[in-house]
Write a structure and sequence with these properties.
single chain; 138 residues; alpha+beta; five-stranded antiparallel sheet; two-stranded antiparallel ribbon; 3 helices; 25% helix; globular; thiol protease inhibitor; Cystatin_sf; Prot_inh_stefin; protease inhibitor; Cystatin domain-containing protein
Length: 138
Amino acid sequence: MSNEHRNSMGPVMNATREIQEISETPDIKYAAIDDLYRKHHEHKIHQFTEKNREKHISSWRVTKYAEEKVAYGTNYFLKIAIDENLFIHIRIHQRKNKDKYDFYALHEVVTLNQATCIFTEGKDEEYFLIIGVKKYSI
């Protein structure tokens, strides 16, 4: 298991066609978009409409990713463009010896009691590990 002292997350790399295709499977893409809209509705910080949702779905493009080999498979950390200069960070998991990928988490940051899952290119966000403490710059 990853922690601040032991972490097997590889380097952050530019997206590949394979990673893009994996991210576009409905179990990943629509789960992440649904989670984004649910969280932003709960926190009342963005007034996303159905038109925004359609644009976020059509603009979906992985820009960066990293892999972490774990005992039970591989975790993938993806930075995804959902609009011009708007990004989300998600974590997906591939079980060992399986071709199936599962959406695991949408990265959320809370600052001064304000939560967000949307990041801009210019903001030097940190890549995230849900189970670990060590952070990686994207």
